Every structure is written in C-alpha cells, then in structure tokens.
C-alpha cells in the first residue's frame, strides 16, 4: 500500500463569517472548504466576485483567523503569520522609502539574517526577476510590472515553501501580465514551491496552473476542481493550442455551473 503524502497546505471544514453591522446576523462568506494541495503544485482559485477567494487566501496565510475549521501547513495548524507562507498582494506592497535592494533584504534583515547572506539574497533574487541593474532605484522610478518584480523578489528572499498570490497582475496591461506570468512560472520551476494563486482570468488560470479550484458564491464553497493536463514547460504559443482551448472551455463551463449554484 502506497503512503499518501502529507499535503503541503490543506483546509479542513473551513468556514468564515463576519458581521456587516451590530444588528444583522453574521454573513457566511466561506462554508466548509476542504482542500488538499500537494507539495510543488500550482493551484489557482477562481470564481465570481464575492465568492471569498481573497478571504480564503488570507486565512490560509495566517493573516485572518477562520470562524470554524483549520488550515494545515505540513500537517501543522496555521495560527499566525509565518515567513514560510509568502504572500503577494493585489496592490503594490513595496516600501516607497526603500530602494529595490532595501525592499528585497527587508524580511531577512528583520529576522536577523547576517549582512553577507542578505547581500547574497539581494544579488540572487534581483537577478532572478530581472532587476540587477535597478537595485539602487526607488519604486517611484519603476513601472508597475517592475514593482511586481520587486514584490516577488522580496517574498522569495524570505525562503517560503508556499507562495500565496492575490490577483497580483490584475492592474497590469495584457502584455506585461503575460510577461509576469512567465516570470512566476520560471521562479516556481526553479524553487519547487507550492503556489496558490487567486485570479478572475480564465486564460491566466489555465496558463499557470496544475489545478484550478472553482468557487461558488454566497456562501463561498468549492463548486468543482479542474485539472489542467497541458504539458510543461509552457510558453506563449500554447495559448492558442487545441489542448489549451479545450481546458479553457471546460473551465468556462464549470464557472457557469458555479454561478448557477450561487445564492442557493
């Protein structure tokens, strides 16, 4: 009998409620979310607005406690923020008063990492995201795509084994978004991290993912899980392949089914 590996990240009976005001009944945002994410997988969460994708990601990261249930990281309950659970926000999270290298070394410096090791991390991760020539630049001098590169380098400098990304490219133009998707895939391939990625974009979900979790809304719950059986490594030409279009069509259909479930 083959042993089943411990999921890198899992949720068990995860439910979340909050009060809109003191007089109203609590609103159930997420209900009974059960997910098991294998080590090294790239998993996307997709669903219509209001289905709780970002809330689920924040609970997974330890940024927000759940009302019921639990999140497990390597079998241990997540109860607080942990550098092993890296988070990339939708909005720019770079510190404007720090240079690129200052942003990248911020986490390691706060954790007491030695100066020589911080310098190595800055050199490595600035190169990996294509910012070696911009290490002394401040965020105000960088484009939106370059600031996202700083975000990625800063998170990776903390050596996470799980990366949680909340629609990180939604504000970028299509061409820059496609470039950044390839950057993310290259980093994922290099590090072997587990990634959980929130998106509204079906094309993005198919291009990046091994698995897409489709959520229904009101309350947010798992409607279906779609496996993306497209060869890796992936490149731009694959976006118009028959295999890509077929998976995207199946995902679109699953989204329609989830929308029909919403409110029930």
Name the features:
alpha/beta, six-stranded mixed sheet, 10 strands, 264 residues, four-stranded antiparallel sheet, globular, 8 helices
Strand order of the largest sheet: 6-7-8-3-9-10
Helix-strand sequence: EEEHEEEHHHHEHEHEEH
Distance between the termini: 40 Å
What share of residues is helical?
Answer: 25-40%
How many E strands?
10
Query: What share of the residues does DSSP label as strand, in percent?
Result: 15-25%
Shape: globular
Task: Please tell me how large the radius of gyration is.
Answer: 19 Å
Largest sheet: 6 strands, mixed
By secondary-structure content and strand pairing, the structural class works out as alpha/beta
Mean pLDDT: 93
Poorly predicted sequence stretches spanning 5 or more consecutive residues: none
The count of helical stretches stands at 8
Task: Write a structural description.
It is globular and about 50 Å long. It has helices at 53-61, 100-104, 106-110, 115-128, 144-156, 174-191, 202-208, 242-261; strands at residues 9-18, 27-37, 42-46, 68-73, 76-77, 85-88, 162-166, 194-198, 211-216, 221-227. The strands form two sheets. It has a six-stranded mixed sheet, sandwiched between helices. It has a four-stranded antiparallel sheet with strand order 2-1-4-5, with helices on one face. Helix 4 (115-128) crosses helix 5, helix 5 (144-156) packs parallel to helix 6 (174-191) and helix 7 (202-208) crosses helix 8. It starts with 8 loop residues before the first strand and ends with a helix. The model has no long low-confidence stretch (mean pLDDT 93). 34% of the residues lie in helices and 23% in strands. With 264 residues, the chain is of the alpha/beta class. It has a domain at 91-159.
């Amino acid at each position: 009998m083959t042993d089943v590996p411990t999921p890198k990240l899992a949720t068990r009976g995860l439910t979340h409620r909050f009060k809109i005001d003191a007089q109203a009944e609590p609103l159930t945002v997420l209900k009974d979310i059960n997910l098991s994410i294998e080590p090294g997988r790239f998993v996307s969460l997709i669903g219509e607005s209001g289905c709780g994708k970002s809330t689920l990601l924040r609970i997974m990261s330890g940024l927000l406690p759940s009302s019921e249930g639990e999140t497990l990281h390597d079998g241990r309950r997540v109860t607080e923020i942990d550098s092993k659970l890296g988070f990339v926000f939708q909005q720019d999270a770079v510190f404007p008063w720090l240079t690129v290298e200052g942003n990248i070394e911020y986490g390691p410096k706060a954790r007491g990492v030695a100066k020589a090791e911080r310098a190595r991390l800055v050199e490595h991760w600035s190169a990996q995201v294509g910012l070696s020539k911009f290490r002394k630049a401040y965020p105000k001098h960088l484009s939106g795509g370059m600031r996202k590169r700083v975000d990625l380098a800063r998170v990776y400098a903390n050596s996470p084994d799980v990366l949680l990304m909340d629609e990180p490219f939604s504000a970028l133009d299509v061409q820059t978004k496609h470039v950044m998707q390839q950057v993310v895939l290259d980093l994922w391939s290099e590090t072997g991290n587990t990634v959980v990625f929130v998106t509204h974009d079906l094309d993005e979900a198919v291009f990046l993912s091994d698995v897409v979790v489709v959520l229904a809304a009101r309350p947010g719950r798992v409607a279906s899980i779609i496996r993306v059986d497209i060869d890796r490594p992936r490149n731009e030409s694959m976006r118009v392949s028959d295999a890509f279009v077929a998976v995207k069509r199946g995902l679109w259909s699953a989204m329609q089914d989830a929308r029909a479930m919403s409110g029930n």
